[in-house]
Amino acid sequence: MKGLTDIPGIRVGHVSDYEAITGCTAILCEAGAVGGVDIRGSATGTEEIATLDPGHVTPQAHGILLAGGSAFGLEAASGVRRYLERRGVGYPTGAAKVPIVPAAILYDLGIGKADVRPTLAMGEAAAAAATDDAVKEGSIGAGTGATVGKIFGMKQAMKSGLGSFTVTLPGGVLVASLVAVNALGDVRDRAGKIVAGARRSADSREFVDTAQQMLRGAGPGGLGARGNTTLTVVATNARLTKIQAAKLAQFGSQGVVRAISPINTMFDGDTTFALSIGDKTADINVLGVAAAEAVAQAILRAVKLAKTLGGVPGLG
Length: 316
Fold this sequence. Notes:
Shape: globular
CATH superfamily: L-amino peptidase D-ALA esterase/amidase
Distance between the termini: 20 Å
CATH class: Alpha Beta
Strand content: 25-35%
Helix content: 10-25%
CATH topology: L-amino peptidase D-ALA esterase/amidase
Number of helices: 5
Oligomer: single chain
């Protein structure tokens, strides 16, 4: 399976700056996709989120932009819009077609160069690089500067990245995910074992268990612990309304909760997008179970494929 690009009509492109250790990822659906969103974190940085509301005049989105760079990285979304406008893609207003591109950012300023962030040009380049090939994973795109396990700061954190995974349902129905994992907490497998997270010391691979440390009174320390956010996109080839797409995003967020602990903290801007593009029929609850599984598996892939960067050790 190819990950998110298993959904016909979706293309994914990345741009990474490995010197500054940041980047962005463009998810394109040029024919239009019904979208929804679920925001669980309390440190979000987003743009055009209201366009996904069921009451908004725009019926579909044409792309999603995920980026590092904190709020500065939102600039990259304009590059995606510029690319799509040149291709004649967008919501018709009479005077011009306006591409609908919701965006969300994660905080990666604590690794690499804090004064270099994704730009309009990088967003445009990510869109231009978009393909329906298998999604490239690991330390790439929006996951270039991603890290996990930061309760004791970056010196005891681990490198993370971007992962993608697809669940196949009967009747040819697909639910796929793409996740850029940049969490305060630890990543756990299905059995609850920590796969990547906060370490006992800078030269140790023994995990301290962030949730247990917090139960003992430890709080996030240092600037490295205060910039996080896991960004998720779930997509399906089943036909959904905007209300159902919002529900699918909520189901997708359950996969984030399943794989990361703790999650949705005051220092995480966790945001899940959902896209429906296709004509298959499926029960929203079944799609939701698949979405949670696809997201949890993508999160595991994100940390397992992440390479060491900026002195932060990875597993890849």
